[in-house]
Amino acid sequence: MSRLTPPLRALLFSAFALLVTGLGAWLLFGRGTSPIQTDLLAMLPATERHPLAEAAVERLAHANGDRMVLLVEHADDAIAKEAARELGKQLAADPAFAAITAELPPFDLDQLIAPYLAHRFHLLTDADRTALTQPGYDAEQALKHRLNEPFLAGIGVKLQDDPFGWLQHWLDLQPWSRSPLLPEDDLLTAHRDDRTYVMVIATLRGSSYDDQVQRAALAALARAEQAVTHNHPGMQLLRAGAVFHAAEARAGAEHDVHVVGLASTLGIAILLLWTFRSPRPLLVAFLSTAIGVICALTATVLLFDQVYLLTLVFGAALLGEAVDYSIQYLCARANAGPRWQAMQGVRQVRPALLLALATSLLGYALLGLMPFPALRQMACFAMVGMLAACFSVFWLLPALLAAPATKPLSPILVRGALALQTLAGRLGIGRRGVLAIALLLLVAVPGWWRLGHDDDIHLLISPPVELSRQEARIRNIAGIGNGSQFYLVHGDDAEQVLQREEALEARLQSLAQNGQLESWTGVAGMLPSARRQQENHAALAPLFASRAQLEAQLQQAGLRTDVATAYLDTWPGQPLTLTTWLTLPVSTPFRYLWMDQGKDGIGSIVLPQGQDDVAVLRAAAEGLPGVELVDKPASISTLFGRYREYASIWLLAAFALVALVFVWRYGRAAPRVMAPPLLGIGLTLAALGYLGQPLTLFHWMALMLVLGVGANYAVFLHEGEPHAAHLPGATYAGVLLSAVTALLSFGLLALSSMPALQHFGITLLLGIGFTALLVPAARPAREYVSA
Question: Transmembrane ranges (predicted)?
Fold first, then answer.
């Protein structure tokens, strides 16, 4: 391959680049669906020990599916209901939605209750079962109480079907009976603080994470809200749903890409034009970088089948590092003047570029070892982009830059670089060097002392404050569980799961009686275990053993003989099975709580409501086999903390590996080459301490990159100086040029809307800046004595 001419090399590499570009275009636009993943939860790692727990987390995250949950709020009851009706009609007329639920269709309560009548003698509340098993149970008194009950609100069982009220008592404890949302005027309505809330549910015509679906649905909602608000002043709309989070994440990422990508591109372009004073180097540098980014994006989608928003923003910042390789080649060309030979230039920069590439790949490879899908994808993106950009210098640029440069580097840049290099070099030798290091340590120690840490999950996912506030109000008003913490109950079969859930519910009932919990929602409350149903049936058996006496009591209470006979003929009834319950229409909103994951096991989800203290919730599950509290945010935060602690060890390991490479390459000069990135990391940590920035996993990951980038600069200076001895300061000018381009890209991450990328940006901004200024220490001291 080394015998290939530069034009042939360029032709082969161009064919490869065009092939990758075509593949990337098809992967991005030719498959009908966008590979851009706007689901922020998809970036999170698996943290739960039980596979059912991870499945439950995902199920709950998408419980509402591709729907908008809307609450129309107004102080006037009539206006709130009229506004909800109008909103429903507006949304129903728009093709963005597959279905709208505002006004409830006519339904017969008897049809809702009828399926339970065959199982009525197996469904008892704990209070009724306890009373029935007590000596001297007075069935006649229970019958009188039922006959004299006031008018029942909500779902009521006919007297002839439930003369003792046992089934009615059980139905009163069901989630649909306890919900604050009740049918009023054919609308699901709740009243709170003298205000009326009416629910409207809009089902999207597609996935919440599809860009086109998001845009169409949000535009339709905005139009409808504007019209309804105009016609009903004072109306407020609360909203919840995955589509809103996905859209906010997409909008934030687009803003970040524009800010980071466009600003860094413009800044780098101006800098290169000023440095090389010709548009040709600018075009060549951007072509090399574009090939790297295209290859990185194509490989990422090919390997992961999707690309996270975090990766896109990080990819926009990658411009500043990918352009380094072409910059070094361009500087070598400018420094060579009329003596320039393209392939000789490749041989001149190859050792430095390959060594720099190796250190960068090492840093990103360590990033890829993290268990976070997003970080692994970012590492893959960066490694492929670095490889493609570097090899474009070897295969493509010689053919494009065969002619010598007409102008040298900007004299202002070279003179400024020489002045900085001389100053830093003098401070790095002899007593001055010892004094300088002592002074740096003196300044850094208080900053190190101030360092803390923060492992909050919101560093990676930070939902919009206003959207979170609205969702919290909807949960509170509609009586929906908090969703952040839930109980996972698992077992060998459905019966064991239900029995274990009943044991948990007994403890939750105690919390509710003590005012520590409002309520909970679980399957066992709607479907008792077979053992519990047998106990219920056994509690009723003594009463029905004397049919004649029971029939006489019913008749004395006023029931007709045929009605009493019909009721007694339904004994003993049949138990309610899981298969039957899953087919009941009333179970539809709650089926997601039951999990049958095949080989991963069987389980159920129990949602507590009205308690945010995790310690209280966790205590309720202690000692119960097969029951655990799943707190995804806390588990992610714990994982953050654990790997943050490991990261410092990884950084030391990476430093040791880079040091070994440098010892192999530079021998006794290796410590000087390693000093700048090491000092840059130390000063960065001190600066973060002074800034009051608690250390996170992402700070440590950024320090990995500081090590790689800083080592690159030391390599560029050490390898390049012998070839530019006739132009003092020129090599360091190239290093500063690389550093400034990196600062223009990675540094702009500090402006990102994503906290994790902000931490990346701030750390890289400080680390690259410090390292670039300290790089002159990488050269032997004698070179500055004579300067």
Answer: 257-276, 283-304, 310-331, 352-375, 381-403, 433-451, 647-666, 673-691, 697-717, 729-751, 757-778
